[in-house]
Design goal:
Blueprint (H helix, E strand, L loop, with lengths): L9 H12 L7 E5 L2 E4 H13 L8 H21 L6 H19 L2 H8 L3 H25 L7 H9 L8 E2 L2 E9 L5 H19 L5 H8 L10 E6 L5 H7 L12 E3 L2 E11 L2 E9 L5 H19 L6 H7 L23 E2 L5 H7 L11 E4 L6 E12 L2 E2 L2 H31 L2 E3 L18
Length: 452
């Protein structure tokens, strides 16, 4: 059983809770875990939500879903016994992220409330409960499996005993190094951006325009379409330059001075402060790189490439250390790290598309010609050269090439074995009643149906 199956996805759980909250009639109980009922309406609503979200259901939904809910309740009971707590700030941050996501998807707060037929305050409470439950379950699982120790001989033994049809097939992967240059932005372009922001701020401060309307019309930030609002954030969640100004704002009717961050230039308006958290809206403008400056950067990187490839002057690693302006890689010889798995290997689909397009026609050891790409974090044009360090063709996993992946598989198998044993014991110790009509299932775990 996959560990992730023990918890229902957050949106699904929340939707089930919302549906149940609307129903004031006597509910039909399907299961009872200890003193905690699982209602038929919860199961029905969760099933519909999983269908709409295309969440896989491996088996009869009227067996799988209540068992998933029952497992979650067992973990939460253990969390109560162990006094497992989650920080309020951590929960609030994720709640605001979820609310902001919904606003972004549906277009406005009003549309979110209309869609869920609930005010945002109630939605926040539901999400807070759900997020807290998921994190408490995860903390219990982590505590139960924290003492796992893995040795190379364990991994080898595990791999040798895997059935042939259980050994995963690994798609083609590459390892890449990168050197980038951020073209110089003309001073006049920066002054023009600042002038536009000063004009927006003056119009708001004089009462001639609404900040959120201007954000929708002109901001280049993802939050622009929802009026520039970013949701409640702690100081550490904001870039330092933004936080320093935002947390000094006191008048929601006024607009901040212009703030420069790595993303561009902002003006900020306070919405609300709650203790050490703040909700603001902002307008972001990014100065544009001129074509001439892009061409100059291309020429510079082409010269560096020529010195390495044609003249043998220096190495790619030297260029990464002394020339590259990519702060994520310049201190690691330009080596790119895959944020999805923490390794240096990328499937082609995991690379930025401009890099993938260039690497596709290269051989290991090749250094590309300079090319223009979008900085994926800052959404601005930069110029890059890349070196294809290695290419691992698609293959069935083996210890020599895929040790870290196989080690992860072994660790997951060990964790799952521990959790399964714990669940078996917990089920046996817990009062469980499954009503008639809900028992005829091939449950994943034994012991749910108690012998009379």
């Amino acid at each position: 059983m996959n560990i992730k199956k023990l918890l229902i996805p957050s949106a699904v759980v929340c939707a089930g809770i919302l549906a149940f909250a609307d129903n004031n009639i006597v509910e039909e109980v399907a299961w009872t875990i200890g003193d905690d009922p699982i209602y038929k309406s919860e199961i029905e609503q969760t099933y519909q939500d999983m269908l709409s979200e295309r969440t896989p259901i491996n088996g009869d939904p009227y067996c799988v879903i209540p068992e998933m809910m029952a497992i979650q309740r067992l973990y939460l009971h253990q969390a109560d016994l162990d006094t497992v707590e989650v920080s309020a700030g951590q929960i609030q941050s994720q709640v605001e992220s979820q609310i902001n996501f919904l606003i972004g998807q549906l277009g406005s707060k009003e549309k979110v409330e209309e869609y869920f037929r609930k005010p945002l305050t109630e939605l926040r409470n539901y999400y807070a409960t759900n997020i807290e439950n998921r994190q408490r379950v995860r903390m219990v699982q982590d505590n139960l499996t924290k003492n796992i120790k893995v040795t190379p001989s364990d991994v080898r033994r595990y791999f040798d005993n895997l059935p042939k049809d259980s050994i995963p097939y690994v798609p083609r992967q590459v390892e890449v190094q990168i050197v980038t240059i951020n073209p110089v932005i003309p001073r006049q372009e920066i002054e023009d951006v600042k002038a536009r922001l000063r004009d927006y701020a003056d119009r708001v401060n004089r009462g001639e325009a609404d900040f959120s309307t201007l954000a929708i019309l002109y901001s280049e930030a993802p939050e622009g379409m929802r009026g520039g609002e970013i949701g409640f954030m702690g100081r550490a969640q904001l870039v330092p330059e933004y936080a320093a100004v935002a947390f000094n704002l006191n008048d929601p009717k006024k607009v901040s001075k212009i703030v420069e961050t790595e993303f561009g230039f902002h003006i900020i308006q306070l919405i609300e402060k709650r203790g050490d958290r703040i909700n603001t809206r902002h307008i972001l403008l990014r100065p544009k790189v001129a074509q001439k400056d892009l061409e100059d950067a291309i020429v510079r990187l082409d010269t560096i490439r020529s010195q390495i490839v044609d003249k043998g002057i220096g190495t790619f690693e030297d260029a990464a250390r002394y020339v590259s302006q990519d702060k994520d890689t310049r201190n690691s010889r330009g080596v790119m790290v895959n944020e999805n798995n923490g390794t240096t290997r990328f499937e082609m689909s995991e690379l930025p598309q401009e890099i993938a397009r260039v690497v596709a026609s290269m051989e290991p050891g090749d250094i590309s010609r300079p090319f223009v790409m979008k900085d994926p974090k800052r959404d601005r044009d930069i110029v890059a050269i890349v070196k294809l360090t290695d290419r691992i063709e698609s293959h069935q996993a083996n210890l020599a090439d895929d040790y870290q992946m196989i080690k992860g598989m072994y660790e997951n198998a060990q964790k799952q074995e521990i959790l399964n044993k714990w669940l078996t014991k917990k089920i046996a110790e817990t009062y469980v009643r499954i009503e008639d009509g809900w028992r005829g299932c091939d449950f994943e775990h034994e012991g749910w149906v108690k012998e009379k």
